[in-house]
Amino acid sequence: MPSTSTRKPNRLAVNNQGFCSVFGVKATIIIVGFILLVSVLSLLYLCTWTIITKHKYALLASAYLYAISTYSLLISASITCIAIVALFVTAWIEHAKGLKITLFILILTFIFEITAGLLAFGYTVNLDERLSKNLLETIQNKYHYVKGKTKTFDQMQRRFRCCGSKSFKDWQLNSNFNLSMASAVPDSCCKSYEPKCAQKPYGKHPSNIFYEGCSSALYRFYHSHLITLGCVTVGVSFLQIFTIILLVWLINHVEKIMLFNHPVAPPTKVRRLSNEITYYPIQSSQLVK
């Protein structure tokens, strides 16, 4: 009977089927990458909207950490968008070096994003006290002396219908406002606002002045937004780390296939003439007879 030889299946071919195949991993990366791209674009929009609408009051309250974390998120989200587009191209053509560069960029932006998200969460701790302290410092040392701060403080008081840091009495810390002077508070503290309203007799009356301090209004303005920004950032970061895991898997598959298709030839052994020569001892003429 003819002998039937059972051929062993190729291990690489077995592991390159179904979901574990290169095509399966590529398809998963493209799907997850698209979801990540939409999430990062949402984060990019949120950061841009934050900078446009909220940063002038944050700088007024000397919330520099909040500003730094937002700008860091904006930059890292922009770089991540470019990296995801590069990921689509390099994954489709199975370019190993391009995949490794994309992996490095995604890991780097992941570190920046998770750090900025944790900073946003951490900044909510004792936020009310920090805002109150910084606003008091602005009232005492910068209002009426720094033009930009003065204008922004007036806009804040009119927008949030507040006065001072904790209350309208905080303006007594500024030498330009006193109960014995023409104005006890700035005009922006008046409920019925008009130029020089605080200098009129009814302007000094407490019924025409906002009672609530601006630190409480700013706390409500920033606290919920910081929680939203932190949650979105952490969610994007977890989705990004899942993409990084898939990308490492794809790089490993691509390198295995490249090694299988183009095996590295073992180094050829160099034959040396000296290794093939047999040496015999020289005998003296007296011994040879």
TrEMBL record:
UniProt-annotated location(s): Membrane
GO cellular component terms given for this protein: plasma membrane
Pfam families found in the cross-reference section: Tetraspanin (PF00335)
Keyword Cytoplasm attached: no
Keyword tags: Membrane, Transmembrane, Transmembrane helix
Transmembrane segments: 29-52, 64-89, 101-125, 226-251
Chief location bin: membrane
PANTHER family: TETRASPANIN
Name the record gives this protein: Tetraspanin
